[in-house]
Amino acid sequence: MTIDETTDDKELIDELQTLVNKVKDPDFKLISPALKMLKSVIRSSTTSMTSVPKPLKYLAPYYDVFKETYDQITDKEIKKECADIISVLAMCPSASTLKEHNDCLHYCLLGTGNVGEWGHEYVRQLEGQIVEEWLIVSNPTQTLLPLVEDIIIFDCKHHAEIQACDMLMEIDQLEILPKFLDETTYARICLYLASCVKYVDYVEANKILRLVTDQYLKFDECTKALILAVQLNDKEMANKIFSKCNDRLVLRQMAFIATRQQFPIDLDPNVEDREDLLNILNNSQMSMHFLMLARELDIMEPKTPEEVYKTWLEPLPMRPLVLGENLDSARQNLASSFVNGFVNAGFGSDKLMTIDGGNKWIYRNKDHGMMSATATLGLLHLWDVDGGLTPIDKYLYTSDEHIKGGALLALGIVNCRIRNDCDPALALLTDFVTNKHNTILTGAVFGLGLAYAGTNRADVISLLIGAVENASNVENLAVASLSCGLVAVGGYNPDVINSILSKLVDARETEALKSPYMRLVVLGLGLCYMGRKNLIETSCAALEVFQEPFKTISKTILIMCAYAGTGDVLIIQELLHTVSERLIVTENKTSKTQTAEKSTSKDKKKKLDWDPGVAQGIAVLAVAAVATGEETGTEMCHRILGDMGRYGDLWVRRAVPLAVALISVSRPHLPVIDVLTKYAHDADEDVSCNAIFCLGIVGAGTNNARLSAGLRQLAVFHMRNPSQLFMVRLAQGLTHLGKGTLTINPLHTDRQLMDTCSMAGILIPLLSLFDTHSLILGHNHYLLFALVAAMYPRWLLTLDEKLEPINVTVRVGQAVDTVGKAGTPKTIAGIHTHTTPMLLAAGERAELATDQYEQFSPTLDGICILKKKLETH
């Protein structure tokens, strides 16, 4: 007896030795009782999580004895009992010469078949060995499937459902799971399977999502089923869920979820409350609800750009230079127009444009600046179709083409996300789509794109395809392509794809291909594939005819759009490979490789030339687009971007701020703000301009105090650099977007869904920033209005059964991942109590703080319908 063995241990060893001797006895009558006794001793042993049970530890050296005895036994029942003991002992490490690989599984199959009697660790061992054997065995469904089913039953009874799911996914037998689900287990299993989707391939993901959707429908969880149908982009399934649901309140809640995603639903003509549901699906109450929220928060008073800039907080010696009347430059007035529009977006009133003599402000801008200044009227009246058309209409009769073009764009902006039976945007803008004046044409075409973003309307698309085919210059082609992409976003519309591709092929041998506008044309093509993954293969093959770097640039843009928000690791690796390898362009005889640094010299700015570094820069942005929406991928992406910024070429460094912003849209975390602030002081003008604008994207609609203070310091630092100062003003306006009530974050419904329109609206300005001076800082600043497609209130509104607002107390905190957690874990951390209506920041989650109401939405965000519970006495 060793030192650590107690008297009890000695007794146990003696008892086990006696039983083993009986097993070895030639008299078979003694073997059966001995085996039963051994089973009883093993089962009754208790142990800690970190050590082997003592009976198993002491029996392990006799492994060979049991195997030899098994071969000698002739009675079938006794043989099975012996096989059970061998199967359990096979888990333990031993110096056996007869032990073979996967003995635990082999002897389990030869035993009595009661897998649950040996506990969790034994079952886990079996699961691992089943996965290994499944591909080796000739007919696994016959030999192993009955055992697999027994294990699933055990797992479901003992809160180990996650293990069962993992095993079934490994052996590709997930379809047998539904028959084992019941009221107590389906929620945990479905939540886990839905969270696995981001880590499997496209085909497997679809299979899992469809299986989970069917289970949610089986257990009458229609709203959760709809969210997954939207995730699958399956319109037929979504319509089926609507037609199956009989609860009118659940139907309305599902309509609000579909509207947030701009997902088209075909309602059954005989459905109850059809008018109410159509109103919700058309989003016609959006402006009313938003203004109600604003009144509740007491923020109806219009804000001026000066109140946003807070120039009085800047150091005294600097102030006259910034505020002096001599410096009433057109560029700063244009910045103020944008800021005014961003800050008062959706409120319907301001102190520059909607006051008496507001048109005087428009004339304080120059040329294309007048267009954008007029278009901000659309921002002010955002979502208010009835009230917004009248103040804009008067500008349609002016003789100035810039103001007229701005008014047409404003009409489109007002109608963004709203579906109206009268179709005012289509009626008013159609006549101008063939106009000969560039500015008017641009306003009408881009206005149509924004008004019908995400609708996939055939009539609008055919109108815009005409604009693509009749484009007289590259700028018109770019705007028409982007508008087509916005309307058909994620729709995989063959007409749009073919028309844009044919225009690209026509320009293959021309200088136009080198224009920055051509990248926007390709982005318009990419938007049609938004979230459609491998469907881009045909278009990628068509782009093979182009020379480098345009071929790589175009393919990267298509990949960025098709895999945006998927978190696909293999695609990210492919893109990182593009980032790491500099393309060699053999067009110039004098030099085989043209570096990005050479192209930035002032004498080359006007001359269009290939710059191979752009392909690397766009690949950086694409990495961020793909990683968005998947927490682990986002975290890794931040680390990779840090290295890229330190060691990358100039174009890579220009793209890094854009990528950092894209994975932190409307989420102003301190590390992100610090990184972008460093880039904002960079010696390269394009790097600093991009970083400053991206500070606005990161802080969009958050009113973040630290970010606001940082932007004021940047305004002082760049006061003599008009380009950077313009970007600072834009960033300040974005930070106070809708006075802090709006967000442009494409992820919603507790980060389960990605709004493709929002993603498209963010990608357009970010891709434009690859040529900051020729686009955003040139005369194409109207491209910033693409952000309208991404704007949405970051609210939590609670409505009663009659869709009237009600005030309810809710607990709000940082969302906690509860997937696979035991018991009923807390879903939020750092809890604060609020009363609805209220604002939710990105990454926050809310839950009801009262038992009086029941909710119909799986997550409390956006517009939620509550029903008062019946009082039980």
Automatic annotation (TrEMBL):
Functional note: Component of the 26S proteasome, a multiprotein complex involved in the ATP-dependent degradation of ubiquitinated proteins. This complex plays a key role in the maintenance of protein homeostasis by removing misfolded or damaged proteins, which could impair cellular functions, and by removing proteins whose functions are no longer required. Therefore, the proteasome participates in numerous cellular processes, including cell cycle progression, apoptosis, or DNA damage repair.
GO function term, MF aspect, one: enzyme regulator activity
The protein's name: 26S proteasome non-ATPase regulatory subunit 2
GO biological process, one term: regulation of protein catabolic process
One matching Pfam family: RPN1_RPN2_N
UniProt cross-references to SUPFAM superfamilies, sorted A to Z: ARM repeat
Coiled coil (residue ranges): none
Residue span, RPN1 N-terminal domain: 16-314
Keyword Repeat on entry: yes
Summary of subunit composition and partner proteins: Component of the 19S proteasome regulatory particle complex. The 26S proteasome consists of a 20S core particle (CP) and two 19S regulatory subunits (RP). The regulatory particle is made of a lid composed of 9 subunits, a base containing 6 ATPases and few additional components including PSMD2. Interacts with RPGRIP1L. Interacts with CRY1 in a KDM8-dependent manner.
Superkingdom field: Eukaryota
The 26S proteasome non-ATPase regulatory subunit RPN1 C-terminal domain, residue ranges: 819-869
PANTHER family per record: 26S PROTEASOME NON-ATPASE REGULATORY SUBUNIT (PTHR10943), 26S PROTEASOME NON-ATPASE REGULATORY SUBUNIT 2 (PTHR10943:SF1)
Keyword Repeat recorded: yes
Alphabetical keyword list: Proteasome, Repeat
Family per record: Belongs to the proteasome subunit S2 family.
Gene Ontology cellular-component terms listed: nucleus; proteasome regulatory particle, base subcomplex; proteasome storage granule
Transmembrane intervals: none
